[in-house]
């Protein structure tokens, strides 16, 4: 498979403010991992939540205050994040640029719990 990012549909996230996601590679193509792209618009956010699967993320652009458990940092372009399964995390975009990142997760059922 080779596709351009413009060929993918982005859907609004059910929680948070001004966030959207597209599944770039799903379990219909790859047996083990899914690749997703998230965009959180300037001034947008994703609430504190947990997932039942781990996340590996690569920041493509922008910056956001990211909470992962007890760690609070500003993540920005070219940063890499690891979020273990079950650990609470959230995102608040800082600055005028959209926060965009790739997120890789195992192809397993993912239970999401919104905490705030």
Describe, in plain words, how this protein is organized in 3D.
There is one protein chain. The chain has 116 residues and is mostly beta strands. The protein has one domain: Jelly Rolls (Sandwich), CATH 2.60.120.10. The protein contains no helices and ten strands. It has strands at 11-12, 17-25, 33-51, 55-61, 63-68, 71-76, 80-83, 89-94, 99-106, 112-114. Strands 1, 2, 3, 4, 5, 6, 7, 8, 9 and 10 form a ten-stranded antiparallel beta sheet that branches. A hairpin with a 7-residue loop joins strand 2 and strand 3 (33-51).
Give the helix/strand layout.
Layout: E1 11-12, E2 17-25, E3 33-51, E4 55-61, E5 63-68, E6 71-76, E7 80-83, E8 89-94, E9 99-106, E10 112-114
Antiparallel strand pairs: 1-2, 2-3, 3-8, 3-9, 3-10, 4-7, 4-9, 5-6, 5-8
Keywords summarizing the entry:
single chain; 116 residues; mainly beta; Jelly Rolls; ten-stranded antiparallel β-sheet; 10 strands; globular
Short description:
The protein is mainly β and 116 residues long.
Number of helices: 0
How much of the polypeptide forms β-strand, as a percent range? over 45%
What would you call the shape?
A: globular
Give a count of the beta strands, DSSP E runs of length 2 or more: 10
